[in-house]
Amino acid sequence: MTNEVIVGMGEALWDVLPEGKKIGGAPANFAYHVSQFGLDSYAVSAIGDDALGAELLENFDAKHINYLIETVPYPTGTVQVEIDQAGIPQYEIKENVAWDNIPYTARLEALAGRTRAVCFGSLAQRNVVSRSTINRFLDAMPHDDGSLIVFDVNLRQGFYNKDILCNSMKRCNILKINDEELVTVSRMFGYPGIDLQDKCWILLGKYNLKMLILTCGINGSYVFTPGNVSFQPTPKVEVADTVGAGDSFTAAFIASTLKGLPVEEAHRRAVEVSAYVCTQAGAMPTLPDDLIK
């Protein structure tokens, strides 16, 4: 693993809640948790030349998150979170912000050349600039049997379409999707009337994937590999919040896989880490030693 890095790429933003703001965005969550397993990780995104951008980097520095984040002439991303009368949060993800405009630079190309694994999603591809940068980064990565290219589907506010999803599935070798997203994707791709596991086998074969990870909330999670499936129940824990739990799952699974653990063991560890994160406030708690040994 010498000089090789694991990259989380996409949105860096602030969730603006009624009680204040919190750092959001999958790349930083993913990179932070990967680093807790002793691997060299980077968050890749963009911020604006503004107070929110400066504060975001201060938070990354405090968490010892490595990053390659460019400053661009757009505002730092925010998500306005409103709580309705029934207590249900409503999200408004601001558009045409910094992370929509991640530039492809010589520094980023050099990082791509050292990248052993990358995790990217669909939300960061809603704008052509960041979408192009993600695809160029994937082109510049080493493409050998050990490279892991993870597409973590995240369908938000209609910021996705069939072309983006199809291209991303073709580019990845590990697909991570939840049960609700799988239903939506299945409708788009024309096979809605079969059960979830059959849908997963179809996607695994159609896109020649190494693995497909399906998370089903309290109903457990699955890792499909050609000819095999691993299932883990979801532990019953006292939930503080679920923010960042999915990103911690992905990070723990990828870090464990890169360390040579078999699929079932990497899956078990990912479930344990994700459950622990749910018991803590915020997306980036320090993991206890027994989860990262």
TrEMBL record:
Pfam families: PfkB. SUPFAM superfamilies: Ribokinase-like (SSF53613). InterPro entries: Carboh/pur_kinase_PfkB_CS, PfkB_Carbo_kinase, PfkB_dom, Ribokinase-like. Residues 21-289 form the Carbohydrate kinase PfkB domain. The keyword 4Fe-4S does not apply. It comes from the Bacteria. Keywords: Kinase, Transferase. PROSITE patterns: PFKB_KINASES_1 (PS00583), PFKB_KINASES_2 (PS00584). GO terms for molecular function: kinase activity. Belongs to the carbohydrate kinase PfkB family. This is Carbohydrate kinase. It comes from Candidatus Amulumruptor caecigallinarius. The lineage of its organism: Bacteria, Pseudomonadati, Bacteroidota, Bacteroidia, Bacteroidales.
